[in-house]
Amino acid sequence: MTHKHIQSVRGMKDYLPEEIKLWQKIEKIIIQILHSYGYNEIRLPIVEPTNLFYRVIGQLTDVVEKEMYTFDDRQGESLTLRPEGTSGCVRAGIESGLLYNQEQRWWYYGPMFRRERPQKGRYRQFHQIGVESFGLSGANIEVELIMLASRWWRRLGIMDNLQLELNTLGSFDSRQRYRTSLVTFLKKHLSFLDVDSIRRIDSNPLRILESKNQQVQMILREAPLLSEYLDQESQEHFSKLCNVLDKMNINYIINPFLVRGLDYYNSTVFEWVSYDLGSQGTVCAGGRYDQLVKELGGYTTPAVGFAMGMERLVLIVKAINSQWSSLVNHDKIDIYLVSSPHVKREALILAEQIRDYMPQIKLRTHLGSGNFKKQFSYANKYGARIALILGAVEVEHHRVIIKILHTGEQKIVDQKEVPNFVSQLLV
Known about the structure:
Structural class: alpha+beta
Number of helices: 16
């Protein structure tokens, strides 16, 4: 009886070693820039109480209604694999007493889970980097977050391939007034709405503004605009944000239909969009959420943040920056240690001595079978610059043969001198 191979869960992707090199290069740049702006890392659980997401995201959103992975544990408590990171970040800040009358700037990175239809750059297990700021009101912190992301794009060589879109949702009161007017308008045009839009009219009508249905979008051209219902404070806040971005030479467009898919946003919302990924082109998105801390039992705390999908970012970098995409096929090492079968223990000892002397070295010790010719073929496969050759004679005389692979030059060196000698060759 043959057993069927077990395959990965649909929409949950393996990331193999040849892909990870590019991921690591991108991650290193992103994290270095986060540190340069004074943001500190926070690490959060992958599983949270389901009620956290009901309260934060909103029970009538697509994420909660359709996409969450929710289950009961053995004690009957409802738990959910996190679909986004802001909820857990706020929960952790309140629980640890770090948000009351304090300023915090945090970032987090890890897998998120949503049961969506898998598509290019969009999986059911995906990876996000989130950036959150607490305790700062005003437009300047929003500008800083946008500038931080802009610096990512410049360092990654994709700035010209992303478009910043902005909007303001205003205060909760002004948004409520707009909601009433929008619902009145939509109910007069029910025959032009699709099933999904009709379902949202009473529960989450602002989401209809982001509908991809062409007929719905055509009707929305005649709909009232949120900007017509903004209070003066919200108008001034958004105007200041735009003015500062103008002075910083950050290009943007104002998208009056940008509302974001989660209930907790107020005031400024923004997205970085790529047209190289098809219709689902949002790479990075966020906004202000000043009431969320209070909603979860804390004190009123101004807050703003954004999250970026790593899968989509990697796709763009590979498509735009060919020099970086070549990393996928290269895994070069500095040294390959060739040895005969009976001196593997001595080879391991020598390798550790070299690593002690040069912690950053990339050294691979041949531990399998194969004659010297076969081992040299592996050294060439991994792009090694130097081969160290250790046989029974070399061990007996405490020596090592060092071969520079691109020239074929060889030299016999006392084993104690090998780390220093190699370090000179690799300068």
